[in-house]
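Table S2 (continued). Query chain:
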Amino acid sequence: MKNKNIYKIAIILGTRAELIKTFPVMLELDKQKIPYYFIHTGQHNLKDLCETFGVKKPDISLSKEHLGSSKFNSKELRAITWNLGLLFKIKRELSKLPNLKYVIYHGDTMTTFTAALASSKLFNPFKKYKNIHLEAGLRSWNIREPFPEEISRRVAGRFSDILLAPSKVSGDNLKKLNKDVYVVGNTVVDSAVRALKIGKKNKTKILSKDKFALITVHRHENLKSKERLSKIVDILSSLTIPSFFAMHDNTEAKLKEFGLYEKLMKNKNIKIMPSMDYPSFICQMEKCSLIVCDGGSMQEESLIFGTPCVVLRMATERQEGLETNFQFLSKLDVEGTKAKIREYLSKDFKVEKFKNPYGNPGVSKKVVEILR
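Corresponding output:
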């Protein structure tokens, strides 16, 4: 094991999405020969992604890794207990790095929430390092949409020393906090470009030669509500092209619990998509004709590839995309959303020229330059 005195940077990650968006920064640190200490909270299993992206595996994991799509599957009490224990584990681990200058965490997960608090002046009043929130400033301005992510990113914004914002809009959202704010762009731009190269090198087979759609549904506020999930199934049932559903295990469980799974599968155009790594999935996204999702990252990736995207939510923190002509916030209006899908799939629809609000490749280099 390397001497911990060499580490001036610690990176704390828990989920696969966090690693996907942070690995380009890690690769840039490697390129510039800057050592970093990788703390994994164990929220998701990350080993295969580390190998895929060519970054080192965690220096330490603070809890047993989970192999499914969700460590808790909406078990709030278990999640709260895990977070409390994690807070002190992170604080203790950071105290073992005597020359630490920066602690970096990403996004809006439970790991983000806890890492921000554990590395803050609230819990470390005499700390000499600065804690950094990467992808700071996203706001839906609705605590319940999405929940608990909107809370996590607000807490991270409040308790971080340096905020790295992915867009001008997100940077503007942070002005009142009186922090060091840098608008750097979104590292997902670097992630998607590099993943696409990996996927093409691996000769990823595209799901369909014709027009096809990609579907994901996993948001907590959608899955817990039979009414909302029923509307989503109604919307998806209208799809008229081959549509591949990347279905999480908790999504499948809720669809079956509410008696909606069979109704969904009556649409012969909808197929459950086999499990794919990120490079393979990005290759599908580059070629697909439509994205239907309730997550955040796919909204950003839609902008990278200029792919029409229907967002199955009531509110979004990634509002920049709604200014284009090819991203639509459904607010779960069934008939309005069906009409928008028909518009996006019509032969006359064309994506109007736009500038990606999240920037161009090279964001990760900007991040490392700020650290230097």
